[in-house]
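Retry 2 of 3 after timeout on previous attempt. Resubmitting structure tokens to design endpoint.
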């Protein structure tokens, strides 16, 4: 699913109005009926609805929803915010349509002193501002938003929580944004919904399709997309009857150190559960027996060091390499990394301490082989790329870094973002907070190594790997819940995740 900017959404709306064609007031009616249907589905017995209306088309939607709810015997109070002399023309039409309606009262809000009391079982519908917001809230709008946020009512925001910019909130006034319980976004999610600091404004969000014109949705370009199963499935390469293990590549996994052999085991097992032909796990000497016992399917390459990574085997035979899980970042490991980066000529995954080593020695960024995939979590990202004060800025830095160094940069978390060398950015919808547990990142490294070894290109391996990893976590959480979920469970559910992905 594409994610468009507010400006593009307005362009898509205009195109739809001209080319469907449909009158803008009828498009507003179509959109509003989607909101209405959602509300009566969620709150089926008629309740008190307090609807706050701004001067633009978002307010127009709120007025149309008010009419529909009143006709369904909900008790509706409409509050018109007097913050502008102008009111959008379709909003004006909808205002005239609710005059003298049964179950519906209209009030003008000229000062916070007229603010109604909001009760916990009220449904507050926030139709103050939508995608047309052009500056942070101030004055009466700000005061009303603060009063809504101070209440315990159920808050439903139409399209966008009022006060939230659709993309960049780096200079917004964070105290002037509605904290919705539910946000009902027309046709597309907004980029801002995918960033962690906005979760408290957006609440649970849903996309309501309003049949905007497919022609422009297809042709309009955007760097931002949200992954879905159909798209990820379309990237899969079929397996053929006479394929053999050589077909699916030989990968090298450099991982583990004294006290962190678990990382090596998890990444190895995940790799083998993701279709790799052959796997060699390079580990410090003391891990030999552990690895041979825990993962009989892998071949083992032993470092001269008992406890850390200091060397690597001949690289000629490997189709892809992963380095990082549990390796630590001692001086000798750093030296071995320098040599490795010089010698590698195949795609490579860099995770955990491999990223931290590069973060501490930025000159290594200039020595990276083609086709690297970096998989940092937030802290590792900061060490590699730098700090940022908000997620939008961080996402811009991530896209820029991927382009500048021609690599795939995966920033892990809820809605993991995958930035590709040519500038695109994919957000992953699978995964759950149960995966916030030790070792789940090691599992992802193993999966991506496996896909690279099978011949998937770097960004495709990252996309499939991230989606599959989250899907396995989701399937595991259905059976096991989220608290008890471990990284090993994610591996155990990879078979079911593969089946579900390919269904
Ligand atoms: N265009 C379409 O096809 C559809 C759009 N719809 C609605 O239209 C909305 C966008 O409508 P608009 O573009 O009219 O935008 P808004 O309704 O978000 O409001 C924009 C108005 O508020 C003013 N404004 C912006 N920021 C302000 C601030 N901080 N303080 C005071 N005034 C401010 C603007 O000058 C403008 O008059 C969407 O969010 C959606 O709810 C729906 O009707 C569905 C269909
Ligand atoms: N709340 C969440 N929602 C979705 N995925 C999550 C969530 N928390 C963690 N994850 C996923 O779990 C993995 C955690 O990786 P990481 O932080 O590197 O763990 P570790 O270092 O313990 O292996 C990432 O793939 C991340 O996307
Ligand atoms: K709104």
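Retry 2 succeeded. Sequence:
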């Amino acid at each position: 699913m594409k994610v468009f900017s507010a400006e593009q959404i307005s362009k898509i709306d205009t195109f739809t109005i001209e080319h469907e064609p449909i009158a803008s007031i009828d498009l507003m009616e179509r959109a509003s009926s989607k909101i209405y249907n959602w509300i009566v589905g969620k709150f089926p017995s008629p309740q008190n609805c307090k609807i706050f209306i701004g001067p633009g088309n978002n307010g127009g939607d709120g007025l149309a929803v008010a009419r529909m709810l009143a006709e369904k015997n909900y008790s509706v109070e409409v509050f018109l915010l007097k913050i502008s002399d102008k009111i959008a023309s379709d909003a004006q039409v909808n205002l005239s349509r609710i005059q003298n309606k049964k179950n519906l009262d209209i009030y003008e809000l000229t000062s916070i002193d007229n603010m109604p009391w909001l009760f916990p079982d009220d449904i507050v519908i926030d139709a103050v501002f939508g995608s047309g917001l052009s500056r942070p809230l101030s004055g009466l709008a700000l005061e009303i938003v603060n009063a809504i946020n101070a209440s315990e009512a159920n808050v439903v925001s139409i399209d966008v929580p009022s006060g939230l910019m659709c993309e960049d909130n780096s200079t917004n006034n964070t105290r002037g944004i509605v904290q919705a319980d539910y946000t009902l976004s027309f046709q597309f999610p907004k980029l801002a919904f995918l960033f962690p600091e906005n979760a408290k404004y957006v609440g649970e969000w849903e996309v309501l399709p309003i049949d905007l014109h497919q022609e422009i949705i297809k042709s309009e370009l955007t760097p931002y997309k949200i992954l879905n199963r159909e798209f990820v499935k379309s990237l899969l390469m079929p397996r053929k009857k006479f394929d053999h293990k050589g077909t699916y590549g030989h990968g090298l996994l450099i991982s583990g150190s004294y006290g962190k052999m678990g990382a090596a085991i998890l990444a190895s097992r995940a790799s083998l559960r993701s279709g790799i032909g052959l796997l060699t796990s390079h580990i410090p000497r003391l891990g030999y027996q552990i690895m041979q016992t825990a993962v009989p399917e892998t071949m083992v390459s032993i470092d001269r060091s008992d406890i850390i990574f200091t060397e690597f085997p001949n690289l000629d035979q490997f189709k892809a390499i992963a380095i990082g899980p549990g390796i630590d970042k001692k001086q000798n490991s750093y030296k071995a990394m320098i040599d490795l980066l010089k010698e590698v000529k195949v795609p490579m995954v860099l995770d955990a301490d491999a990223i931290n080593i590069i973060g501490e020695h930025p000159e290594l960024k200039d020595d990276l082989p083609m086709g690297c995939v970096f998989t940092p979590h937030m802290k590792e990202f900061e060490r590699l790329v730098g700090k940022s004060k908000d997620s939008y800025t961080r996402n811009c830095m991530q896209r820029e870094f991927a382009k500048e160094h021609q690599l795939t940069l995966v920033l892990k978390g809820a809605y993991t973002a995958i930035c590709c060398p040519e500038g695109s950015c994919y957000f992953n919808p699978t995964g759950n907070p149960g995966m916030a547990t030790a070792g789940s990142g090691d599992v992802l490294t193993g999966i991506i190594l496996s896909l690279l070894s099978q011949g998937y290109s770097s960004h495709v391996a990252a996309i499939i790997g991230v989606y599959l990893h989250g899907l396995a976590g989701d399937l595991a959480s259905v059976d096991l819940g989220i608290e008890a979920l471990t990284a090993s469970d994610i591996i155990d559910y990879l078979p079911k995740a593969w089946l579900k992905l390919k269904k």
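Attempt log closed. Residues 13, 27-28, 31, 54-61, 83-84, 88, 129-135, 137, 141, 158-160, 186 surround NAX (ligand 1) (CB under 6 Å).
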